[in-house]
Design goal:
alpha+beta, 4-stranded antiparallel sheet, 8 strands, elongated
Amino acid sequence: MRAEQTTARRRRAVPWVFLVLWIGVIALAAPFAAKLADTQQDRVVDYLPASADSTQVAELEDQLPGGEATEMVLVYHRDSGLTAADRKTAADQVAEIQGAHKLTSEPRAVPSKDGTTLMYPVASTEPGQDEKKRDALVEDVREVAESQGGLSVEVGGDGAFGTDAGKVYDSLGGPLLYTTAGVVALLLILIYRSPFLWLVPLAVAGLADYLAMAIAYGLHEWFGTAVTGQSSGVMTILVFGAGTDYALLLVARYREELRRIERPYDAMVAALRGCGPAVLASSGTVAAGLLCLLAADLNSSRGMGPLGTVGVLCALASMLTLLPAILVLLGRKVFWPLIPAFGSEPKQRRSLFSMMGSSAGRRPLTVLAGGAVLLGALALGALNLPGALKQEDSFTKTPDSVSAMETLAKAYPERGSQPITVMTPTEDAGTALTKIQDTKGVDSAAKGRTAKGWTEISVIASSAPQSAGETATIESLRSDLDSSYVGGASAQQIDLKDTNARDRNIVVPLVLAAVLLILVALLRSLVAPLLLLAAVVAVWGASLGIAGLVFEPLLGLEGTDPGLGLLSFVFLVALGVDYGIFLMHRMREESLAGAEPGDAALTALRTTGGVIASAGLVLAATFAVLTSMPLVQLVELGFVIAVGVLLDTFLVRTYLVTSASVALGRKVWWPGALSRPAAVAKGADAPRVPVS
């Protein structure tokens, strides 16, 4: 009797303990979570490694009198040609700006040959590296430089672009969170068909996101982890996407256990024992893949690894502790109107995945060959991906700074409008200036500030910013000036592209190796892990191919983010293998129970297909939220990952992995014990991890 009373008290106490613990954790995290937005650094130079030429230029500029300069270009334009009154208006506005702010040099008007445009390059060292001061300066200049009487006035340049980009990144947090929560809520309502149940995992995911923000802030403060608008946005997506996936698996198993176990507490314990190990293994695989980004040289990619891992682990912790506690406290009624009564049997229906599995099982080699040809054909579309994304093409809606750059490109086709900055040792400044002026593609060059043994030289190319001609000019300057550094906005884009290429060559093999090792340890096989890896790599290639057919022809995107290949690979491999684990682990269990290889594969698909398809839809939908954001790099990343998850869920895992497993038979478990028929009769030592 006393033992039963103790057990009853424990059943009542444990959920409350977890609930109180989470309330305390969130209360402690709240002050830090609110500070995460203040740590975001979204300048291109903040993304680059310290070794990049552009980064060296920025650091040396900070040592010059006044520090780093904020460069802007005032663009005065009239389609019919500028009048004398327009030129006077421009001169008066520039004089007012010069009187209100300390400029690095006297502003000089540069008229276009066709007489429609007047350009005034201006720069100020007032803000230094303080982004808030930079934004204030740009806004002050824009208030003075107002369009009037048919005269168009725009403020462009790197400083204005940085301000416009900052506004976009600052605006991401709220819309991204609300849109993601709304999409997840809608899908959960459709999946659960309950007016109450969907609220529980959604609320738990929201608290997990809040905790992840606090931990991310701590990583930034203690370890200097880079936080960008992209990485914090992806962290939120992972919390809701992965967290909801774990919730779907747990709730499905909990519902099943409630039919055979009377007390909710005992049913939840059984559910956790059943699906908990598989969830732990899959989340560990995702975390391991993301942590490989720590080997990246690009600060933004290296920071995304820990932040993404934090998101996944916070989602895991909340869904395995807080969600079970709340569900137990709410009891069976939370499932209303489809309450799983004790002793009842679920309705038997012929599932879609049962039919799909049967079709894959009848002619596995035909299905496998057809699927491989289809994925290969889709991957060819990657050849149609647009070239590297230019700075002015980074927004889905054109801000003032980009509009100014477009006006300049049309009015000054014979010269650049964005300075290239060269930092050279002062004793070599004269020689360097001569070399620069003699370099092919240079329109003009002039010495600027000098301090601490370094001299600044401002260079104007004869080609438009980020064109092939300007890129060639920058590369020539870097090869000819041995002791100098070449930076500026266009040089930063070159360094960004080069660093991404280097990171891709290092991180991709690391991800493949890390995931393969985990799969080998989990599945105790070599063939099955290689099969899963081949499948997710094929999904990645096909997803990029579909992107090549959609980005420019349908969406009008004029460039591809240099980091798209690496980031989409990491996420699709980690998340795709995540689902493969559930399928192959269940297949292994059926084989251990004595099922023939073909039957084991089809049973695994039938039993895991529905809930994992729901999880795949949720994850794809959460990443698809990124396509509604105003930044092209987020649109592209969200599109590729969403398409990849859907391909994996409804084609690769359903047909190709299943048909390959049927065709290989016991060889899929080679060289493990299950590859030998005698091992099945004896059983194996791996625990059963059912997934409903």
